[in-house]
Each structure stands twice: as structure tokens, then as C-alpha cells.
Amino acid sequence: MGEAEYKEFKKLVHAGIPAIHRAKIWHECSGAYRRKKPGYYQELIAQHEGWESVSLSQIELDLHRTLPNHEFFEENGLGIEKLRRVLVAFSWHNPSVGYCQGMNLIAAVLLLVQSDEEYAFWTLVCIIENILPSDYYTGQLLVSQADQRVLKELVKEILPRLDSHFCSLGVDLGAVTFSWFLTIYTDCIPMETLLRVWDNFFVQGVVSLFRVAVALLKTNEQKLLRCQDSGSVYHHLKSMTLEIQEEEKLIKVAFVTLKPYIKHSVVQSKRDRHICQMKQEFGILDDATGEHSI
């Protein structure tokens, strides 16, 4: 795809990928079609049948907490078994990550769009191993915690009045936004809007998480500024995502207005700096294998 064609494709993504094409485009844009190995998914499940692990225990606890109001994931719904197999297979595929809470919601959304569970498995693999930074779900969640510091820094630069307001009230933004990032917004915004966000996530990568977070704050800035105490701020931060009245405005602010201010290079530079600072704060050393130890 040439540069001009790619720009046109991104414009189409901003408008929302048609539902009939979404599964295929996610599969291709995530890189899953390149990673997919015929028979590998089935072999993982078959080879580890009956095995036990800490990851499997946590998966079982989270299965019935996953989109419980959606008929596909009701107690006897078809989605529960598919979700179990996808999460279990991933835990054996990548034992260094295994399973982390939030992955159940990500896999569930993939299954709603990509009815083929093998497609969903490989797309999950690419999200965690390729699109998100390394160690996003491992190492005391160090990288994902660092991203919350990056977000706070971006808010200070782009929305200084709001940042000052939060500081004056003692609001810890990360207490709310950490789960936004860890679940890629699956736990906080309506499904229709979520699919639009994910359309851009698969094309633009992890930088889209920051753009959406700042866009949510920017489009709700005046209401947040009117909050007189931390309790009302936290309440609004959690409630403002449940019903997004102006979806098109949110998408435009996130992926057009904020694009010049929140770039991949900027996010990466800030993340690297914060990871280094956090390692020093927590006394974390990298051993010869690149693993973290305290």
C-alpha cells in the first residue's frame, strides 16, 4: 500500500470500519495473519488438556465476570467456552505473561467481532506481544504504570488548567485511567464507541490509548473543572465514559485534533524516562536476561 493509499485508508478508519469488514481488517492490521501458524492453536489446547496452573485458576474466576449482560457470555452462552479456550491457549503460548486481569475483556471483544476463535487467539497474541509495549502485563506492571505517568505529563502539557485543578483537589488520575489502558477501554466505554476506538488502535498502535484518554478529558474538561472536591471528580471520571453522547466529536478530537501533540516518538521518549525513574525508585535491577529483579 502506497503512502497516498495509506492516508486514504486511515481516513476510512476514522469514519468507522464497516462491521462486515472489521474482523478481516483487525486480523490484517494487527499482524495476526502473518503470525498465524496452521494447527498451532489446536495443538496448544490439546497438549495441555487437564494441566493446572495459577493462570488457569484466575481465568476461571474471571470468565463469568466478563460482559455478563451480553447473551454471548451468559452462563450457558456459546462465548464462555470459546473465551476459556482462547485465554488458556494464550497462557500456555506465553507463560511469561500467562494471564492478567483485563485480558478476558480484550479477548471477549475480539470474539464478538471475530467469531473464529483461532482468529481471536492470534489477534490477542499480536496485541500483547507486538502492539502494546513489551512487559505491559508483566514485571509488576511496570510499563503500564509508567504509561500513567506519561499520561499525567501529557495532560499537564495539553490541558494545564485541568491538571492544576486535579492537583489542587488531590486527584490521582491514574486511579481511574490505569484500567482504561490495561483493558484497552473495554471496561469503560459503550461497545459502539469502543469498536471505533479499536479500529484506530489497530492502525495507529498504542499511541491511540493516550489520544483517547486526553480526548475524553478534553471533551469533559468544563464539567470536570466545575467539580468542587475529589469525590465528585472521581465520580465524573467514571460516569462520563458510560454514555458518550458525541462519539464523532470524541473520535475527531482524539485522532485529528490531538495527533500533532501526542506522537509515537513523544510517548516512547517519555515512557523510557519514566521506566528508568521507576526502576530507581523501586530498586529494580535488570539481570543478564533482561528480566527485572528487586
From TrEMBL:
Pfam families assigned: RabGAP-TBC
UniProt superkingdom: Eukaryota
Family annotation (InterPro entries): Rab-GAP-TBC_dom, Rab-GAP_TBC_sf, Rab_GAP_TBC_domain
Record domain Rab-GAP TBC: where: 16-205
Regions that span the bilayer: none
UniProt GO MF annotations: GTPase activator activity; small GTPase binding
PANTHER family cross-referenced by the UniProt entry: RAB GTPASE-ACTIVATING PROTEIN 1-LIKE, TBC1 DOMAIN FAMILY MEMBER 2B
Protein name per Swiss-Prot or TrEMBL: TBC-domain-containing protein
